[in-house]
Amino acid sequence: MPMPRLSGLMLALALFATGAQPLAAQSDPATPLEASPSENAASGSTADHTRFTELEGPFKNAREVNEACLSCHNTGPEQLHGTIHFTWTAPKEAVGEEADQLGMLHVANGFLLSTPSNIEACTSCHIAGTRSDDSALLDASSDPVAPVDCLSCHEPTGQWTVANFHENGAACTMCHDDRLKGDTPEVEDLALAARSVGPSTRAACGSCHFDADGGPGVKHGDLNADLIEPDATLDVHMAAAPDGAGFTCSTCHTTQEHRVSGSRYTGGPGESPERPALAGAAASCQSCHSATPHEALASGPRLDRHIDAVACEACHIPAIARGETKTRVLWDWSSVGELDRRRQPFVDTEKDGTVTYSSEKGHFAHASAYEPTLIWSDGRLNVHRPGDVLPEVTGEVDEELADEVREGVAEAIADAFADAPWISLYDGVAGAGSSRIAPVKVMHSVVPIDAESRALASVLFSGRGRDALWNDFRWEDAVEAGMDAAGVDFSGDVAFARVRQMIPVNHMVAPADQALDCNACHVRAGRLADLPGGFVPGRDGFDLLDKAGLLLLAATLAAVLLHLILRLGFGLFYKGNRNG
To answer: Comparing C-alpha atoms, which of 355, 353, 3, 32 is closest to residue 163?
Structure first.
């Protein structure tokens, strides 16, 4: 297969499922977009979009659909333009003076590395709903003011977003590790899509978040398409009644004027537990379940004493990626560029279709039923940006990863990355009032850096020129172009470094009877074995005191045995005397 000249790229927000189907024609009664008025209208709402004449069309393009929407919802754009979903920048009130340097537009990561070097192609899937090579599209104050795409969030099946993204010409490799077979989704009836709109759904939100950074479940092990219609064992909140609560994303991610609550950059497990759910980086379970959620249990008082030190998710999300979709735990960019016997790019897969190597992306490792790592977290996230210098690591190994690491052996991965620096790390101090023991997914990556300065590299992935990585696999050219776009100096030489990052875990809440029991943590080799700080009964002890206790126990047992022997002996002696 000849190497394609890839001409578009999307980094992070809208990376979509490979199996999406095209939007069907309006005349097809079986289309998933066809909805009865009662199904289409929001619960308690007075609006049913299937009845609006303004949405009958015909529409030539998505811009005409949005204009029809905005004829009623005329304050939508100014609300949306100020949100993190539009600007990809964390709001100032949340992160203070560093606001202009946080958010997907600014930070580096171990997945698709960085956004600035690929910003022109990123806009192909931006929620403005139009392809633009102007980075000002992300700036709400730009002139002309950027439009919005109502269907991105309000078309309930998520199919519009997938189809629109494919039509905008983004690079296939950014979303898909493997080459797709067959036709890509197309929009056949814009009027049908317009009339189907309603409140956001799990499928609509998931069209971006379930496949973030390269494919299904890649980034977020607790977010994937399995949550569109989960059973209660996978997520007791999102499962349908009567077994589950039937939550949608917006049940917890409450929204005011298009500002969706919940961000990894704000809040924390110990901050204002009675706040509305997910006002910060971690869910406030207490806002619904109170500060004493176990009071109905016989052991309730003992369990509720954990609330001040342990986030609810630590016990009630025993594992992530528990459904059919795996999550990525290793991404090795250093192995990009291997070719097959015909000198063409290729893909290796496991028997279940999971990609383990791609010429454009390197080696991967994935995991199912993945146990999160428990850390002390106060919700404050330390991040790195392209150009940030990584520290020198004692005993750093530059050679290729061992086969067992690339094969996903958990212990081997942990050992190989034991000293790797963190490019995304939560603060937290044991015993501090603002800190709780909380679960995170740890991602392990081998990423390009400047060989001389050890600065994290920004990379140009695709484009028409030879400097795009996926055209000729020339790392030096791709990094030079990427660093120039990010405004960072580059020495001209590329090296690779092992890094780690933390991804928060808040979803896939298991039923109460599947929560962790005491022995999961209160043993020496339990889930808290590597957690620093604090005294954990069962895990910790004082050697001298333990030895003294064992000695006392042994002495007591010896005394009891001696007493038993003496009683038996004297009993037999006196019994013999009486008989004589």
So the answer is: 32
Cα–Cα distance, 118 to 293 (Å, whole number): 47
Question: Which of 445, 472, 450 has its CA nearest to residue 461?
Answer: 472
Q: Strand pairing partners for 425?
A: 382
Q: What is the DSSP letter of 328?
A: E
**Under 8 Å between Cβ of 474 and 312:** no
Output the CA torsion sign for 402, 407, 410, 414. Answer: positive
Pair type for strands 255-256 and 259-260: antiparallel
Q: What is the DSSP string of 87-153?
A: H-S--HHHHGGGGGG-STTT---SSS--SGGGHHHHGGGSTT-S--S-GGGG-TT-SSPP---THHH
Other beta carbons within 10 Å of 258: 18
3-state secondary structure of 474: coil
pLDDT block averages, 10 residues each, the chain of length 580: 37 33 32 42 70 89 86 86 81 55 84 82 64 58 69 87 69 72 71 90 89 88 94 95 91 84 68 45 68 87 87 93 95 94 92 91 95 90 90 66 92 93 90 85 96 94 86 94 92 94 93 92 88 81 76 92 86 67
